[in-house]
Specification:
Layout: H1 15-25, E1 32-37, H2 39-42, H3 50-60, E2 65-69, H4 94-101, E3 106-107, E4 115-118, H5 122-126, H6 140-146, E5 150-154, H7 163-171, E6 187-192, E7 195-200, H8 215-221, E8 224-229, E9 232-238, H9 239-252, H10 267-276
Parallel strand pairs: 1-2, 1-5
Antiparallel strand pairs: 2-4, 3-4, 5-9, 6-7, 8-9
């Protein structure tokens, strides 16, 4: 019988194969893991995208917790509806959207940068997300860090790793007070009890175009394991090591993660702010 393959020529992947690959990468029973993914790169799943979720749950067990970013960027300046945790789809792709729609999933309440989770630590991660702090203190990512969780990158690079925005917040780099895009405005809108509430943001996650710069440091310090899950390159990272390494790099060089694209809606203003604050070498 001919091997059935998806249009790009890759063989389909099964729940069992994905679980095997995840274990080989180092994911363990009882882990708390925050997943960034590209299902297209992981491979075609004949039973649907929750196949990956089932494989993750098989490895994590009942005592493990799966979490994903479910960002919506619900800034009124973008011309989008207010954020409704139960209804608003994430802009980050099929797998996080699949997770957040699961009946057992819990989702945090931040109007631009929410997270969803399944497992015994789901409530700990998602409850009480400060509506004015997207990815900083006491956000789901901060709680991931405090709990000693892991970050899993499947078919994506460090540019998808939103935990590095937490490092920017912890390090105290001054540019986090500047919006990603000034045209969006400083407030996010949330639908609460049938009414729209707006929350002015204290900090703003910015461009992630320079995040790949951290990868050699993670390898050198032994915080990252690399392999393949399905057909995708995969990285499993100890979150405490990730954040502590990134904070040290930012305190040595506040422009460490900023990109140099002239057309970036975020970084030129942030470079300017650093120079005006007395960093003439930047």
């Amino acid at each position: 019988m001919a091997d059935k393959r998806e249009p790009n020529g890759l063989a389909p992947v099964t729940r069992e194969e994905l679980a095997r690959d995840l274990r080989a990468l180092g994911l363990q029973r009882g882990d708390l893991v925050y997943v960034h993914s590209s299902l297209r790169r992981v491979g075609w799943m004949p039973q649907g995208p929750w196949t990956l979720g089932e494989a993750l749950r098989d490895v994590l067990g009942a005592e493990g917790t799966l979490a994903v970013p479910t960002h919506t960027l619900s800034f009124p300046g973008r011309g989008v509806p207010p954020y409704d945790p139960g209804q608003t789809s994430t802009i980050l792709g099929l797998f996080p959207e699949t997770v957040r729609q699961r009946p057992e999933a819990l989702r945090s309440g931040h109007g631009s940068h929410s997270s969803a989770a399944i497992g015994p630590l789901a409530a700990y991660l998602t409850a009480g997300h400060d509506p004015c702090h997207a990815l900083g203190y006491d956000s789901p990512l901060h709680r991931l860090y405090r709990a000693g969780g892991k970050v899993l990158l499947l078919g994506v690079t460090q540019t998808a790793n939103t935990s590095l925005h937490l490092a920017e917040s912890i390090s105290g780099v001054l540019y986090t007070r500047l919006p990603y895009d000034a045209s969006w405005g400083p407030e996010v809108a949330c639908l609460e009890d049938g009414r729209v509430r707006r929350y002015r943001q204290v900090e703003f996650p910015g461009c992630s175009g320079g995040f790949d710069r951290i990868e050699p440091e993670l390898r050198r310090r032994g915080w990252m394991r690399e392999g393949t899950v399905g057909h995708a390159s995969a990285r499993l990272i100890e979150d405490r090591g990730l954040i502590d390494t990134a904070v040290a790099c930012l305190r040595q060089d506040p422009g460490y993660f900023l990109c140099h694209r002239e057309d970036c809606p975020c970084c030129p203003a942030r470079w300017k702010a650093l120079r005006e604050a007395g960093y003439p070498a930047l």
